Please model this.
Amino acid sequence: MPIQPNQQAPDFSLFDTDKNKVSLAEQKGSNVVLLFFPLAFTSTCTKELCSVRDNISQFNDANAKVFGISVDSLFTLSKYKAEQNLNFPLLSDFNKEASTAYEVLYETFPSFEMQGVSKRAAFVIDKDGIVRYAEVCATPSDLPDFGAIQQTLGGLH
Model:
């Protein structure tokens, strides 16, 4: 069962597109939004992440750091981030450790029979590392409920 609200968020350390190691533990004191997504350069993922890009001020206003996470390599994510002009970090979960810890890994991705692809999922984690919102989308073409994410962020201090 995926991580649920009121649970301690599992820590992870992943590389970003600038080749820096980023851990969840380092984010204590800030609200965090984790957006797991299946694959860079796909239409729904691009729609989701560009929506966040275009509305980043809402996340900044809520003192929230946004991180996109996929199993793509950091080199693929770097090219994707540059092409889409994304203004928040993308983290490579190439070894599938974070996706496994959050229990958001497809056994077999519905398209192309790929194994070990992240499900589309969103988690809001408060300043103390507690999950306050958790959503795992039913299908890869579904988008997270950004209204509910913003509402959750609005209720955090």
In short: The longest strand covers residues 64-70. The chain has one domain: 30-147. The chain has a mean pLDDT of 92. The domain at 30-147 is CATH 3.40.30.10 (Glutaredoxin).
